[in-house]
């Protein structure tokens, strides 16, 4: 049965399900770190880069990173590690998820990295044509890394684009949109390396993903285990705590065991201490851009209905 709108001169309120969520306007990286904190963060980033370089040197590496060496100090000495490190397992897991997801979805051409500024994925992975790569990381480290990568001839795949958003930016959402990010298109997000100092930092990240990621998009990443244990007090409640936190931001999360990743790759379990939690999460709700698109469509239909009603009168 076709329903005709009743003519009225009063504007109708927008349905609550078409209201966009509040934006997060706090920087997700504290640019005012003291010297000790800044030094510690840079050392952690270098340590992760060194692990990826060591993995590249292994006889049977999980992945090969031909560019990571240029980001390390010239005088650094490396021994070939025999055992797998969990950071490298996570890197391989995320690499595979990115590539397979894009192979399954021809329209997936937006990747957002939340990194420490030393992620070489934009250069070393084979991205499909027209892929736009957004890197959110500390500006100083990213700039230094880009300079070194360019000096060794690293290039973004042809007809792809790498855009940087400093993690010190006060409004990450607006910065991404200004660079062309589109919340009405599918996207993949990666959280690996960006400093998560407090629970509030991580909640800000989830809020950004929740607001910008189109429904059905995914985020893969690592979360410091000490943060979860501080909040829960025990590892046994980690899953429940993660579920609650992600659901509150419209995301469905799955904790991925590092040992399971190793088994899937036909490798022995890693013997290194686990200081992070590997996860994969799916966006279950509509992005702010989707909501705005439908709000405008709803308003257009309402206005056309009002005009039809007046014509009948």
What does this structure look like?
The protein starts with 34 loop residues before the first helix and ends with a helix. The chain is α/β, with parallel strands linked by helices and 313 residues long. 42% of the residues lie in helices and 14% in strands. It has a domain at 91-309: 3-Layer(aba) Sandwich (Rossmann fold), CATH 3.40.50.150. This is O-methyltransferase 1, chloroplastic-like isoform X2. GO terms for molecular function: methyltransferase activity. Pfam families: LCM (PF04072).
Sum this structure up briefly:
The longest helix has 25 residues, at 288-312. It contains ten helices and seven strands. It has a domain at 91-309: Vaccinia Virus protein VP39 (Rossmann fold).
CATH fold annotation of the domain at 91-309: Rossmann fold
Main-sheet strand order equals 3-2-1-4-5-7-6
* CATH superfamily caption of the domain at 91-309: Vaccinia Virus protein VP39
CATH architecture of the domain at 91-309: 3-Layer(aba) Sandwich
**Distinct helical segment count:** 10
Give the tally of β-strands.
7
Largest pleated sheet: 7 strands, mixed
> What radius of gyration results from the CA coordinates?
22 Å
Q: Which residues form runs of ≥5 with pLDDT under 50?
A: 1-24
Q: Order of helices and strands, N to C?
A: HHEHEHEHEHEHHEHEH
Shape: globular
Counting helices, strands and paired strands, the structural category is alpha/beta
Beta-strand percentage range: 5-15%
- On the 0-100 scale, what is the average pLDDT? 85
- Any idea of the CATH class of the domain at 91-309? Alpha Beta
Distance from first to last alpha carbon: 21 Å
Helix content: 40-55%
């Amino acid at each position: 049965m076709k329903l005709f709108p009743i003519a009225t001169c009063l504007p109708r309120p927008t349905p609550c399900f078409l209201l966009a969520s509040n934006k997060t306007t706090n920087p997700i990286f504290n640019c005012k770190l003291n010297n000790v904190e800044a030094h510690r963060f840079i050392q952690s980033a270098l340590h992760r880069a060194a692990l990826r370089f060591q993995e590249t040197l292994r006889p049977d590496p999980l992945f090969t990173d031909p560019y990571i060496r240029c980001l390390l100090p010239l005088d650094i000495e490396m021994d070939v590690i025999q055992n797998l490190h969990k950071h490298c397992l996570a890197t391989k897991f995320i690499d595979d998820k990115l590539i397979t997801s894009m192979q399954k979805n021809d329209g997936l051409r937006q990747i957002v990295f939340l990194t420490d500024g030393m992620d070489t994925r934009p250069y070393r992975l084979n991205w499909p044509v027209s892929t736009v790569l957004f890197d959110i990381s500390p500006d100083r480290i990213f700039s230094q890394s880009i300079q070194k990568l360019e000096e060794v001839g690293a290039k973004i795949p042809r007809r792809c684009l790498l855009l940087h958003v400093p993690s010190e930016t006060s409004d990450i959402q607006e910065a991404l949109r200004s660079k062309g990010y589109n919340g009405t298109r599918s996207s993949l997000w990666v959280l690996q390396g960006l400093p998560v100092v407090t629970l509030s930092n991580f909640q800000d990240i989830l809020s950004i993903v929740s607001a910008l990621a189109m429904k059905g998009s995914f985020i893969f990443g690592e979360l410091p285990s000490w943060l979860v244990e501080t909040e829960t007090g025990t590892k046994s409640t980690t899953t429940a705590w993660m579920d609650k936190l992600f659901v509150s931001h419209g995301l469905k999360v799955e904790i991925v065991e590092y040992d399971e990743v190793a088994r899937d790759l036909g490798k022995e379990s890693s013997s290194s201490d686990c200081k992070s939690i590997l996860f994969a999460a799916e966006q279950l709700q509509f992005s702010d851009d989707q909501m705005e698109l439908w709000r405008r469509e709803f308003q257009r239909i309402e206005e056309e209905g009002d005009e039809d009603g007046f014509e009948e009168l």
